[in-house]
Design brief:
By secondary structure, the chain is α+β, with helices and mostly antiparallel strands. The protein is 34% helix and 22% strand. Strands 1-2-5-6-8-7 form a six-stranded antiparallel beta sheet. Strands 3-4 form a two-stranded antiparallel sheet.
Length: 140
C-alpha cells in the first residue's frame, strides 16, 4: 500500500526558512512567503520536512490512490528553488512563456532566484493553479 510521505505538519515555517544556509536563498524564501501568502490568502504551513504549502485539497485518482496536498507551495532547496503548482494544467505553459529564467518538471517549476522571474506572472501561476485544482478536485 502506498504511504503518503508529504503531509502537513506543525513545524514552524519561519524556523525552516531560518535554517536555509545560503543568505540570498533565505531572503528569496521570505520574499516568496510574502508573495504566496498575499496571493493565496492562506497561512503558510510546512508539508513534510521542506515544502512550504498554502491551502490544501483532497485528491482521488482513478487508481484509488488518494491523499491531501497543498494547493501551491515552494521549497528553497540547495540547488534551486522549487515552486509547486498543479500537474495537468494546460494553461501553465502559456504563463511560463513570459515567466523568466526557469526549468520545469512534472509538478515543479525551478528557479535560481526571485530576481530571475516576473513576479506578476508568478502570482498568475499561483491563482491559475488554485483555480485548476479547485475545479478538478472539488471538496465533497
Amino acid at each position: 500500500m502506498y504511504k503518503l510521505k508529504t503531509k502537513e505538519t506543525d513545524n514552524s515555517v519561519i524556523e525552516f526558512i531560518e535554517s536555509v544556509e545560503n543568505p540570498k536563498k533565505r531572503e528569496d524564501a521570505y520574499q516568496l512567503l510574502d508573495i504566496f501568502t498575499e496571493t493565496t490568502g492562506y497561512k503558510a504551513k510546512m508539508w513534510g520536512p521542506s515544502i512550504i504549502g498554502f491551502g490544501a485539497y483532497h485528491y482521488k485518482y482513478d487508481s484509488g490512490h488518494e491523499g491531501d496536498a497543498p494547493l501551491v507551495g515552494f521549497s528553497p532547496r540547495k540547488a534551486k528553488i522549487s515552486l509547486y503548482f498543479a500537474t495537468g494544467d494546460t494553461e501553465r505553459e502559456d504563463l511560463l512563456k513570459d515567466f523568466g529564467k526557469h526549468t520545469t518538471g512534472k509538478a515543479c517549476v525551478y528557479i535560481n532566484k526571485v530576481a530571475d522571474i516576473n513576479v506578476d506572472i508568478l502570482k498568475a501561476l499561483i491563482n491559475q493553479s488554485i483555480s485548476f485544482l479547485k475545479e478538478t478536485f472539488p471538496n465533497p
